[in-house]
Structure formats: C-alpha cells, structure tokens
Amino acid sequence: MANRKSAIPFSSTPEQDQKLEEVLQELRGTQGAVMPALQKAQEIYGYLPIEVQQRVAAGLNVPLEEIYGVSTFYSQFTLNPKGQYKVSVCLGTACYVKGSGDIYNALKEKLGIDGGECTADGKFSLDACRCIGACGLAPVITINDEVYGRLIVDDLDEILARYK
C-alpha cells in the first residue's frame, strides 16, 4: 500500500522546513547524498510524504523518481505518518501459527486502515513485523512499547479501548 494516499494531509512547520533546507544545503553536490538526506528528512517530519520527497529532489538536484525509488525500496523509510499509538502485529512463525494473521485482519477492520496506514484522527497506525522475540507469548502485538501476548481476536476491543 505504499502508493496509497494518507488520510492525514501533510503539513509542516517553518522550523521543520528550515531544518530540511539546512540539511539539503549541506549535502548538495555530495556523492551519495540521497540516503542521508532522506534519513534526516524522515527524522524531521516523521515520514516521507511526496511533498518532502519533492523538496529533497529539488534541493539535491536529483530526479524525483530516484528519490521515490530509494524511499520505497528501503524498509527504514515510511511514506505514511505514524499514529500516536503504533500498533505492530508479529507475523513471525510462532505468532502466525497461533493466529496472529486473524488478529492482524481484525485490527485492520476495527481501525479501518490497512497495514502501513494511520487512522484519519492520527491516533493509530498499523504495521506487521517479523519476530519480536516473545515467541513464548504468541500471538503478540505491541502498542508503542507495551507488549500484549497470548491474544485472541476477542481481546482487541478491550486493548484498543485503553488508548481511546
């Protein structure tokens, strides 16, 4: 769903824009500047919407296609904003065998978003991950730094209610 438009419109502050401009001035003309520029841009804005990618492309005098290609190739980059509460469902083998796929699908339905997306109110974002090392608690989800294990789909309403 990398191409899907976020429900949250992009906005930035003058401070963020100034920081990005400083980064681009520093890196302009430098060999291999795309990765560090995108990393800094994501630190500044939290994600890489098309508006930021366009600014990086213009600032480094690099084709937008190259910026987009790097932004979508590397998993460290996200094109969508993250929610206040970052929900991550482990789809590693132990969790998946014990039903994390059903939990992931139920969360998509309950939150009204797909993986990699953020709810329109900015509260929740949903992602899947591979093994978080809590196999004994399978299936597992995390919400920010909180771990919830030995879950069934019926547990989700109660868990989500804690964050609303």
From TrEMBL:
<dbReference type="Pfam" id="PF01257">
    <property type="entry name" value="2Fe-2S_thioredx"/>
</dbReference>
<comment type="similarity">
    <text>Belongs to the complex I 24 kDa subunit family.</text>
</comment>
<dbReference type="InterPro" id="IPR042128">
    <property type="entry name" value="NuoE_dom"/>
</dbReference>
<keyword id="KW-0479">Metal-binding</keyword>
<dbReference type="InterPro" id="IPR036249">
    <property type="entry name" value="Thioredoxin-like_sf"/>
</dbReference>
<dbReference type="InterPro" id="IPR028431">
    <property type="entry name" value="NADP_DH_HndA-like"/>
</dbReference>
<dbReference type="InterPro" id="IPR041921">
    <property type="entry name" value="NuoE_N"/>
</dbReference>
<protein>
    <submittedName>
        <fullName>NAD(P)H-dependent oxidoreductase subunit E</fullName>
    </submittedName>
</protein>
<keyword id="KW-0001">2Fe-2S</keyword>
<keyword id="KW-0411">Iron-sulfur</keyword>
<dbReference type="InterPro" id="IPR002023">
    <property type="entry name" value="NuoE-like"/>
</dbReference>
<keyword id="KW-0408">Iron</keyword>
